[in-house]
Amino acid sequence: MAHRKFNLVDPNKEKMLYIYSDAELLVNSMNDWTMNWLPNGWITTSVPPVKNADLLKLLLQSWGNKRFEHVNAQTEELNWKACWNRLAGYPARNAALMAFHNHP
């Protein structure tokens, strides 16, 4: 998981670490919304509990100087963000497929 990688890369949380993701919900959650949800007991403004709060809490534990940035998905751009996003997508899709097929 990403939170484990954060701690390996910067255990003292001193460096700025940028995390690029095509998951806009994740980027917005980590950059904007978690700081409101945390003092509100992980309840959204429309009152339902935050979905996947357990995973967001794990990421927050490793927060430090981290910044999530959105990159476009499924793009043919040749910039480094798009290239790394495509490379990261392969193992993510494979893991999702394995979980789907192994789920009873």
UniProtKB/TrEMBL annotation:
Coiled coil: none
UniProt xrefs under PROSITE patterns: RNASE_H_1
Molecular function as annotated in GO: nucleic acid binding; RNA-DNA hybrid ribonuclease activity
Pfam family, one: RNase_H
Signal peptide, first to last residue: none
Gene3D superfamilies: Ribonuclease H-like superfamily/Ribonuclease H (3.30.420.10)
Domain RNase H type-1: 1-97
Protein name, entry field: RNase H type-1 domain-containing protein
Species this protein is from: Phytophthora nicotianae P10297
Lineage: Eukaryota, Sar, Stramenopiles, Oomycota, Peronosporomycetes
